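quick one before i forget lol
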Amino acid sequence: MTTYIGTATSRIDGHAKVTGTARYAAEFNVPHLAHASLVGSTIARGRIARIDTSKAQSVAGVLTVLTHQNRPTMASDDSAYKDDVAPEGAPFRPLYDDRILFNDQPVALVVAEEPEIARFAASLVEVEYHVDQHMTDVRQQRHRAFALEPVERLDDNPFAPPPPRGRPEQVLGAAHVRHRAEYYVPIEHHNPMELYASTVVFEDEGRLTIYDKTQGVQNVQRYVASVFELDPSHVRVMSPFVGGAFGSGLRPQYQVVLSVLAALSLKRSVRLVLTRQQMYGLGYRPAMFQEIELGVNAHGALEAITHEATTVTSQHENFYRQETGWSGLLYQSEHARYTHKLARLDLATSCDMRAPSAATAVYALECAMDELGRHEAGSVGASPTMLFRARSAQRPTIQQQGPARLLSAGRRGVRVEQAERRIALDARRQRTCGLGHGNRGVGGAAGTHRRAHSTDGKWTCGGRLRDLRHRHRNLHDHGAGRGRHAGAAVG
């Protein structure tokens, strides 16, 4: 019996936060600190034709205005910009050349003695463009989306769709009850409470100490050293506290590159804090279309499922997560087909966001199951209780998922008896519009977690694995304001 359950415990970082002594990336002050402000593009695709910085440079207190034409040297190879969790493709290079890849992309950086001076001077920078036709609407680009290749082994690509099995199209055509629907989730932005910021302290011998808003100090440290071809032992990254990130801080954001550019140019400490509006130009949960088709037999058992997802990525990187495999994890079906397509848009690259892919994919799946239940109940004369029992009894096995697929034995821990009692209680109160009363509905929740993989296909009861080699595929500490006193990295 544990002693900590029910016992009040103070957070390690609680006292610092409630007393205001916790310092975030933009709150580390050093002597002679300069302040930077961004100029963002006003087009979504094209090239910079001309930049006039003369008015900005004439403002008293302005130290420099950096563009792709006068910035310090940066690495010229894509591999140097590949951080630890970068997707396939060519990573974005901040202030590297004249190409515009997305709206509000940084095109100039004004550095001044005070933040107010920098912001004012940034408004004076004039930029002219050669504009190319752009595409930012996933609905218009959907027909051009390309499909990802399914994989048999999780090790080959943990985010690719599972391989098909059985004869789903034929079985769906003969199903007793068949339900097909499409679901859409728009882009969702993290935009956490703490603005993205970097304070770069320029030290003796060109050593850098960087206070950065990030969820991965080691990742940022290696990234900065690589991009600027610096001795890793001369780069230290600190992130003692994070005021929310939810996955947006897993990759280095462009403000850390621009802050280092300014510090190396001036040989002086520099801080850059993004505005709330500029935060929308960072990563986001990609928009998603999901087409799901389900077929059940006369006994209410699920016999076939097809699950097709289309998600958004940028023109220069292929970001995606496991969108369709959740169907196979949560429900057993002998016949299944999974498809995941990517639609390229002229946007910044999408990224992880709380419960990446699960929050959107499971939403669509569970909506489809609920809607199927309504059709099925009317067709077979079953009660919601019977349908719930039949559905939760369908647990997928490792053989049905294919070798080393994503790891769950299905709906573990679903308390059917308790759910039946709740359904029966609400059924007595139901109105003509359906189950539930007032604003409360009736449903169930499901959970599954990808944590490890089996090396020999051995499984224990309840879906637990034995003989495992645990592997951290993605250290997704989503940084919901938790203090990380060990948040430092140095080469």
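fyi The chain has two domains: 16-133+195-281, 139-188+284-429.
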